[in-house]
Amino acid sequence: MTRMIKSGVGWRLGWDPDADAFKGLVGSDDWALELTAVELEDFCRLLNQLVEMVVQMSSELMAEETIACEAESDRLWLEVEGYPHAYRLHLMLLTGRRSEGHWAATAVPALAQAAKSLDVF
Predict the structure, then answer these.
(1) Strands 67-72 and 32-35
(2) Which of 63, 96, 68, 94 is nearest to 80 (CA)?
(3) pLDDT value at position 43?
(4) What span, in angstroms and rounded, lies between the C-alpha atoms of 39 and 69?
(5) pLDDT tens-place string over residues 6-20
(6) What's the rounded Cα separation, in Å, for the pair 51 and 83?
(7) How far separated are the first and last CA of the chain, in Å rounded?
(8) Are 25 and 13 in contact (CB under 8 A)?
(9) Model pTM greater than 0.70?
(10) Fold for the domain defined by 37-117
(11) In this predicted structure, what is the pLDDT of residue 34?
(12) CA-wise closest residue to 44 among 67, 2, 19, 75
């Protein structure tokens, strides 16, 4: 498998199987963070869980209500916040690098779709 970078307006997602320690990449237009393979796997899994949770909860909310949901592993923490049809995503890396990043609501649907279709694990 070769190096792959998926990107769109406001998001980037990458995989480099030949990299030593940091095989994954997440980012936006103005920042990027390298992740280990297991961190990237956690990111994709947790993001998918959050998207599914928002879909399930959306029928229970009134149109003007916002939602905030979080999910975490021992490596990273994710939170979505906003309306069920438009929510921001926040990432905090919980390992030694202690990094964080965020994506605008306009970028999250495409990022989530790319993370769901990332077939490297």
Answers:
(1) unpaired
(2) 68
(3) 97
(4) 19
(5) 999 999 999 999 999
(6) 12
(7) 11
(8) yes
(9) yes
(10) Transcriptional Co-activator pc4; Chain A (2.30.31)
(11) 96
(12) 75
Query: Max Cα separation, the chain?
Result: 48
Low-confidence winner among 3-7, 55-59, 70-74, 84-88 (lowest mean pLDDT): 55-59
Instruction: Evaluate whether 108 touches 88 at the Cβ level (below 8 Å).
Output: yes
Distance separating alpha carbons of residues 26 and 36, to the nearest angstrom? 11
Distance, in Å, from the CA atom of 58 to the CA atom of 111, rounded to the nearest integer, reads 20
Domain boundaries in the chain? 37-117
Gap between the Cα atoms of 26 and 39, Å rounded: 10
- Run of H or E including 38: helix 37-58
The predicted model gives 37-45 an average pLDDT of 97
Res 62: pLDDT: 83
pLDDT of residue 78: 98
